[in-house]
Amino acid sequence: MGMNIWTYLEGNPDQSQLFNEGMAGETRLLTKTLIEDCRDTFEGLDSLVDIGGGNGTTIKAIYEAFPHIKCTLYDLPHVIASSHDHPNVKKVPGDMFKSVPSAQAMLLKLILHDWTDEECVNILKKCREAIPKETGKLIIVDVALEEKSQHELTKTRLILDIDMLVNTGGRERTADDWETLLKRAGFRSHKIRPIRAIQSVIEAFP
Ligand SMILES: C[S@@+](CC[C@H](N)C(=O)[O-])C[C@H]1O[C@@H](n2cnc3c(N)ncnc32)[C@H](O)[C@@H]1O
To answer: Domain O-methyltransferase C-terminal, which positions (predicted)?
Structure first.
């Protein structure tokens, strides 16, 4: 079609609505685990931006579990325009390749697997520049692929890899791939935590 999926969705509001509701459906499953398994990831934060946060389902759930966090939803203007309102979630439209709002922490949930390594390094650098060096944190929720693992979710993770290749031009990544990307973007350390989901939680420090 000569355009990426995000430009296509911008010009097709019905498809965009369907896509955002689909992502929110996945989120309802994933966020429960994310919040229950990773309380310590969020507890110490004072502010958090959900980059590419879709219709706001994830950030709303995080705010409700951790009401001390100042929460911001950030996504493309047409997605923000049709996102849910919440009295305690600020909505900011924009393009993460140009800039992202500043906060103590950034959440990139199911974002980086949509993009090539070069594009990911650009997004990661923007996030690193928007968080404080001493106390800042980047929280990535994405697959950490172990291609040869006998784990019951390995095939699903591999199918997602094909899905990303076909639909977005992105890919799923192994622990080594994550290390390479995060180092290239200037992050000093990171840790990967498996959760009860297809995805893992990767915390990276500037
Ligand atoms: C796969 S969805 C993930 C949505 C949400 N994070 C979740 O986990 O349900 C990718 C999101 O990235 C957003 N996005 C794509 N390009 C973007 C850009 N340049 N700037 C900001 N957001 C973007 C899309 O609009 C979409 O909401």
So the answer is: 2-188
Tell me the per-residue pLDDT of 61-94, one tens digit each, with 9 for 90 and over: 999 999 999 999 999 999 999 998 999 999 999 9
**DSSP H or E segment with residue 84:** none
- For the CA of 111, the closest atom of ligand 1 is 10
State the complex-level ipTM: 0.99
The CA-based angle 186-188-194, given to 5 degrees, is: 110
Q: Say whether pTM exceeds 0.90.
A: yes
The residues carrying an active-site annotation are: 113
* Contacts (Cβ under 8 Å, ≥6 apart) of 52: 74, 75, 96, 108, 109, 110, 111
In angstroms, the CA 80 to CA 77 distance is 5
